[in-house]
């Protein structure tokens, strides 16, 4: 009899506390809203039809919604927790002009905003996100192949090159682009003309007009190369690259040096074909202009 009463008591206990112990109340969803506005450079105007994404940092649950005519993205039913919020808005030139009253510099403008560690619960049911815009990327150095291939089996240092990549969402022209090869020491030996780290102390240079910032605010170039062009002659399309070679040759093939001597490549697989490079850096005439000999392989 006692065993039967105990069993009935356990059943009553389970049914009486089932809602709380099994988490129904703990998993109750809440509503949440995100107010989306542009930053002050766009007069803090509301942002309509911006894509808003909420990501629960604990569970990985993702909720998406677009902002309405009032710039508000309403989420009717999401789980309480800590969220990461990302907002994205793309405008074509026509929409941009209609919204802000002037013509944009490109055909598509991208606005972004984000926030992290946003608490969502019964007492915190809204937040605001400010959208900013900037050019999506720009020209970046994608590769610097400076070490060269094998000194005896490959092309030594003759196959050096730089690849410049257009990381933006619009065409960028390479015309007039400067590339500087900086000058410094290749060792850390300390001397009277160096800093404590062994690098040159430029404050001691002759004619230095701003010695206090000579080592912190400036860099010093050994060579500066400039891509020619009239401003719109050498376009780099979005996601495309240009290659600037030391010598725009097929380095897998034999060549003649400036003395007319043949140079054979022992292992062509170690080097590359740069004959289709966009530019090369030829210094022969420049070196002759100040009395120096032309580099043997230039």
Briefly summarize what is shown.
The protein is mainly β and 298 residues long. The chain has four helices and 17 strands.
For the CA atoms, what is the radius of gyration? 32 Å
SS summary, helix count: 4
Distance between the termini: 105 Å
Helix content: 10-25%
- What's the total count of β strands? 17
Order of helices and strands: HHEEEEEHEEEEEEEEEEEEH
Shape: elongated
Query: Sheet with the most strands?
Result: 7 strands, mixed
Overall average pLDDT:
88
Describe this structure in words.
With 298 residues, the chain is mainly beta. It folds into two domains: 26-133, Immunoglobulins (Immunoglobulin-like); 139-183 and 220-289, no CATH class. The protein contains four helices and 17 strands. It has helices at 2-16, 18-21, 93-100, 284-289, and strands spanning 30-38, 51-56, 62-66, 72-78, 81-92, 108-120, 126-133, 139-145, 161-166, 172-173, 178-182, 221-226, 235-236, 241-245, 255-256, 262-263, 279-280. The strands form five sheets. It has a seven-stranded mixed beta sheet with strand order 3-2-5-6-7-1-4. A four-stranded mixed beta sheet has the order 8-9-14-17, with no helix packed on it. The chain has a two-stranded antiparallel sheet with strand order 10-13. A hairpin with a 5-residue loop joins strand 6 (108-120) and strand 7. The longest helix is centred in the N-terminal third of the chain and has 15 residues, at 2-16. The protein is elongated, with a radius of gyration of 32 Å. It starts with a helix and ends in a 9-residue tail after the last helix.
């Amino acid at each position: 009899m006692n065993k039967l009463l105990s069993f009935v008591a356990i059943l009553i206990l389970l049914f009486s506390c089932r809602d709380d112990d099994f988490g129904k109340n703990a998993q109750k969803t809440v509503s949440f809203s995100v107010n989306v506005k542009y930053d002050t450079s766009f007069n803090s105007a509301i942002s309509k039809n911006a894509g808003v994404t909420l990501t629960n940092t604990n569970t990985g649950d993702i909720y998406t919604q677009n902002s309405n005519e009032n710039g508000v993205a309403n989420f009717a039913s999401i789980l309480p927790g800590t969220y990461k919020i990302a907002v994205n808005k793309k405008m074509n030139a026509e929409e941009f002009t209609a919204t802000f009253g002037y013509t944009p510099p490109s055909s598509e403008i991208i606005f972004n905003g984000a926030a992290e560690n946003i608490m969502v619960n019964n007492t915190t049911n809204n937040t605001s996100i400010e959208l900013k815009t900037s050019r999506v990327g720009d020209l970046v150095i994608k590769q610097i192949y400076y070490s060269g291939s094998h000194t005896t089996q490959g092309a030594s240092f003759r196959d050096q090159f730089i690849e410049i990549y257009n990381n933006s969402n619009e065409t960028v022209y390479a015309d007039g682009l400067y590339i500087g090869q900086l000058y410094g020491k290749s060792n850390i030996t300390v001397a009277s003309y160096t800093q404590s780290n062994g690098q040159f102390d430029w404050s001691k240079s002759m004619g230095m007009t701003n010695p206090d910032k000579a080592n912190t605010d400036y860099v010093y170039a050994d060579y500066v190369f400039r891509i020619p062009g009239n401003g719109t002659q050498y376009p780099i399309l979005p996601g495309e690259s240009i290659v600037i070679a030391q010598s725009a040759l097929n380095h897998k093939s034999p060549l003649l040096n400036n003395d007319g001597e043949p140079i054979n490549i022992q292992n062509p697989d170690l080097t590359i074909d740069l004959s289709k490079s966009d530019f090369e850096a030829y210094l022969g005439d420049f070196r002759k202009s100040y009395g120096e000999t032309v580099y043997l392989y230039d």
